[in-house]
Write a structure and sequence with these properties.
532 residues; mainly beta; Immunoglobulin-like; 5 domains; five-stranded antiparallel beta sheet; 2 helices; elongated; disordered N terminus; disordered C terminus
Length: 532
Amino acid sequence: MRMASFRYLVFSGLSLLLFGCAQIGTLSGGEKDTSAPKPIEDKTTPPSASTNFSSNKIKITFDEFFKLNNPNQNVKMVPPHAQVNVEMKGKTLALSWKDTLKSNQTYAIYLNGAIKDLTEGNDSTMQYVFSTGSVLDSLTYTVSVVDAYSNAPMDKILVALFHPETKELISFNKTNNKGLSTLNYLAPGNYELLAFNDLNGDLELQPNEHVGFPNKKVITIHPDSANRATEPLLLFNPEAKPEIRTIKYVPPGSIIIGSTQEIKNETLYLNGNKVNSSQYIHLNQDSLKLFVSADTSFRAEIILNSDLVNDTVSCRVVKGRKKPVLVKCINSDNTFSPSESIRFEVGDLITMIDTSKVTILNEKDSSLISNEVISWDKNEITLNISWEEFTQIQVEFGNQAIQTVNGSAYKTNYPITLNPARKYGSIIVALNYESSIILELYDGTGLVEKLMLDAPNTPLTISELSPGNYTFRVILDENGNGKWDTGNYERRKQPETIEYYSKPTTVRANWDVEVELIPISEVTEEDEESTK
């Protein structure tokens, strides 16, 4: 597989600076070419970084033959005061323009992936700079970009400076794999800073592109300061239009409906008929599972009316696509803690359970446990068993024990482990928040616990945790809706704040451990101090 590498090249009268990473090209008979064509410094006229520039032509000779990649889009003058014409002859690139440039202005011409070698297709990002005055602007500004939800550094994100009033593009660059980007050849002044994943390469923010921006609409670049953003830009997915985003028929008889927003206080209609709440379940905040009969093929038109989403969609329910009705344990390891109900999920809406075909055994002595412990609701089965009496049980659902709208479940057998409290540990975490939060607890496999808390300011105990290492994350739930909300660029609204805690907490069986949450930023500062 061929991977293009992006290099940031600034060639001046003194040096050629290369920053980039290795790339993988197609195998050939000899040594593989892993770099993009490079400009030859003494064959660039006028030289890059020239001052008192009065020409309207530039010639750049490269160290190898090359091909042009969409030059109309990938060759840009910034500020955009001229349309650059591009011609290629042999190893030489000729740039020219007819427009008159402003006096005493520093310009950069970007070759943003416009130059590729003939064999491997390696490309690069290059910047040719000049000034129409006697001074070349020389300030820089460094920015880091991270994902607003995961805090991961974002690679190949466009970072751009714009004039705060005219919105004219002043400078741009892309982030590296550490999420860092440095903007060069800047004049002192005020700018609007923006980061976005420029999907169509037009250097303009589009409504569907992820975006990040600082809290202050205007940043100031000083000649006597470090000129580095104090906080990373949080890149977020823009708020989605409230609508049904997915609808899918899943045999033997269910329709999965997913929305871009929370589904709350909903009313459902199937082909014009109101759906009883007993006919569907909430999978999570933004999705539902609707159970239907698939005795015949039909077009299912679904109308969803809710607090946030009002939409109509349809899908095809196909007769003959029935699959066996499956029964599975809610917990994938078939193990339950003392506070958990022993539950099973059925792949269709249950109509009846024949308890005479269900066997529950105490594995300690193979004695039968009464079938009266079985209850069911919609597509879930619960065993109401006294925890103190058993540690291992065997549950067998016989053929046709479970009847559903679209058939019956096959014979299924589950060995169930009922762990005593002494096999678990607890975390006592100190909390002091003045507003609602969402407290998330993670282990090595993912999310373990998610708690919605209203202004917690006392220690909280999280019990029945399996031995292992855990980390925390806190979402400051500003509107108290129980979920993380993304930002809005038009309203200059940042995503809801997420506090990350990287130091793991070790839980041991039958022990309580007290934890004080320390944000990653503070841990990093402590680590930096300890290395000095």
